[in-house]
Design brief:
Layout: E1 8-11, E2 17-21, H1 26-33, E3 43-47, E4 55-64, E5 67-68, H2 77-85, H3 89-99, E6 109-115, E7 120-124, E8 130-137, E9 150-152, E10 163-165, E11 171-176, E12 183-185, E13 196-204
Antiparallel strand pairs: 1-2, 2-11, 3-4, 4-5, 4-6, 4-7, 6-13, 7-12, 8-11, 8-13, 9-10, 9-12
Length: 205
C-alpha cells in the first residue's frame, strides 16, 4: 500500500528530519481524497496561549494508544487499511532509517488533522516520550502563498524558519523528537478557500 522505496531527503540541521515524496502512491491518494470524512466528525482543538504551544485546528483520532478508534467503523475501509499499513514492521523500519531513532507502534497515535482559515500551530518541541512524528499531506495544488506550511526552526523564538515545506501531496515530513526539534505550522491564508488535510503519525515510547 505504501511506497517505502519513495525518495527520502534526509537532513541533520538543525535536528534530524526528512522529506519523503511519494510515500502514498497516486491511486491511494485519490482513494483517500474521495473518502475524506465529514468534518462534523472532527473535534475542534484551540488554545490561544499557555502550555507549550498555541494552536487551532480540527482533529479526528483514528488510532489512540496503539488501538483502533471506533470511528474507523464509520469510515471508508481505505482508512483502516492505511492505519494498518502505518503500523507494520516495514513502515516502522522506514521511519527508523529516516530519522535514526528506534520506534515502535505499541503506543502509536494516528489522526486526521484539518486546518482552515488562520488555523496554525506555534513554534514548539513535542513532549518527552514521543520518539518521532510523520506528517503526510493530502492536498494537491497547494502553493507557498497559501499558508499552512510546515516550518523547521532553529529555536523556540520562532523568527525566520530554517526550512519551509508547503503542505502539498505527495510530500510528507518525518522528524525525530528532541529538545531542539522546534517546528510550527504557519496560519492558513484566508483567501485559500479550502481546507488543509493531513495525516499525522505519532510514535511514542
Amino acid at each position: 500500500m505504501l511506497d517505502l522505496d519513495a525518495p527520502v531527503t534526509a537532513h541533520r540541521t538543525p535536528y534530524i528530519w526528512a522529506q519523503a515524496d511519494g510515500l502514498l502512491p497516486l491511486p491511494l491518494l485519490e482513494r483517500l481524497r474521495g473518502a475524506l470524512p465529514a468534518t462534523d466528525l472532527f473535534d475542534r482543538k484551540e488554545r490561544a496561549a499557555g502550555g507549550d504551544k498555541a494552536y487551532a485546528m480540527q482533529v479526528l483520532p483514528l488510532v489512540r494508544g496503539g488501538a483502533d478508534c471506533a470511528v474507523l467503523d464509520r469510515l471508508d475501509p481505505v482508512w483502516r487499511d492505511l492505519v494498518d499499513a502505518l503500523r507494520t514492521p516495514a513502515y516502522l523500519d522506514w521511519v527508523q532509517r529516516a530519522v535514526e531513532v528506534p520506534v515502535t507502534a505499541r503506543h502509536a497515535e494516528i489522526g486526521l488533522f484539518v486546518f482552515g482559515t488562520d488555523d496554525h500551530v506555534s513554534c514548539h518541541t513535542d513532549k518527552s516520550g514521543k520518539l518521532a512524528s510523520h506528517v503526510i499531506y493530502l492536498n494537491e495544488a497547494w502553493g507557498p502563498d497559501d499558508g499552512g506550511a510546515f516550518e523547521v526552526h532553529t529555536s523556540g523564538s520562532g523568527g525566520t524558519p530554517h526550512a519551509t515545506l508547503p503542505p502539498e501531496a505527495p510530500r510528507s515530513v518525518v522528524f525525530a523528537r528532541s529538545e531542539h526539534s522546534w517546528h510550527a505550522v504557519e496560519p492558513v491564508r484566508a483567501d485559500v478557500g479550502r481546507l488543509r488535510w493531513t495525516i499525522q503519525v505519532e510514535l511514542w515510547a
